[in-house]
Amino acid sequence: MSETLFVAFSTQKGGAGKTTLTVLMASYLHFVKGHNVAVIDCDFPQFSIKDMRERDLRNIERNPYLKKIAFEQFKKLKKRAYPILASRPEEAIDTAKRLLSAETPPDIIFFDLPGTINNVGVIQTIATMDYIFCPIAADRVVMESSLKFASILNDTLISTGKSNIKGLYLLWNMVDGREKTNLYSIYEAIAGELGLEIMKTFLPDSKRFRKEGSEDEEKSSFRSTVLPPDRILAKGSNIDKLAEEMLTLLKR
C-alpha cells in the first residue's frame, strides 16, 4: 500500500477558494474516484469545513430529498463520509497521527491551512506537506499575494531541501469565461520566471462552487462533505479534470 500523502490547497490571500477546493476534491476523490481521504480543518478559530459538515448532516436529516440521495449513495458505495478533524495549525501533524494510526489509514489527508506564514508552527506544518496547490486568480492583488506566498515557499523550503514538499503547483481558479486573455499569459510568464509551475486545468468562475444543500429545497448540492458533487452541476466545472491532473501529479 502507498503511504498517506499530506496535501493542502494553500495561499495567504483570503477568498481565493482554498476551502471550497479542499471540500470539492476531498469529496470527489473519496466518493467518485474511490480513494480514502480525510480532512484536517486548521482554519482556527472558525473551522469552516467542520461547520460545513455539521450543516450537511443537519440538512440531510431534515430534507427527505437529500436523505434519499445519501441513503442510495451509501447503499451503492458502502462507504461512509470521510472524517473531518479540527485542529490548531501548529498541532495539525499530531492530529494527523491519529488518522495514521487507524487500521486503514487514509490514502490522502487534505489540510485546510490558514493563509498566514508568520507563525513558526504554521511554517512547520506547511513544510510537512507532500504537495501544495496554490489557487490563483487574474486579479492584481490576488496574484501579487499568491506569487509572493508561493515564491517564499519555493525559495525557503523547497529549493533548500528543508521541507517534505515534493511539488508546489499554482492553479487558476475563478476564471472569467473559457478564453484566457493576455493578462493570463503575462502572469504565467511571471510565474515561470519565478520557477513556479501552473497546472493545465483551470476552474471557471461559477456560482455552482458555492451551492450547498438546504433543509427544504429538492435540489442537489455541488459543494458537500457527505455527498459527491451533483453530476449535472459538475458538467463544465472542470473538477473531474482537476482531479485527474492532481492524481497524476500525486502519482495515484
Automatic annotation (TrEMBL):
Entry-linked CDD domains: ParAB_family
Lineage: superkingdom: Bacteria
Residue ranges constituting the CobQ/CobB/MinD/ParA nucleotide binding domain according to the UniProt record: 8-216
InterPro entries (alphabetical): CobQ/CobB/MinD/ParA_Nub-bd_dom, DNA_Partitioning_ATPase, P-loop_NTPase
Record-linked PANTHER family: P-LOOP CONTAINING NUCLEOSIDE TRIPHOSPHATE HYDROLASE, PARA FAMILY PROTEIN CT_582
UniProt protein name: CobQ/CobB/MinD/ParA nucleotide binding domain-containing protein
Organism lineage: Bacteria, Pseudomonadati, Bacteroidota, Bacteroidia, Bacteroidales
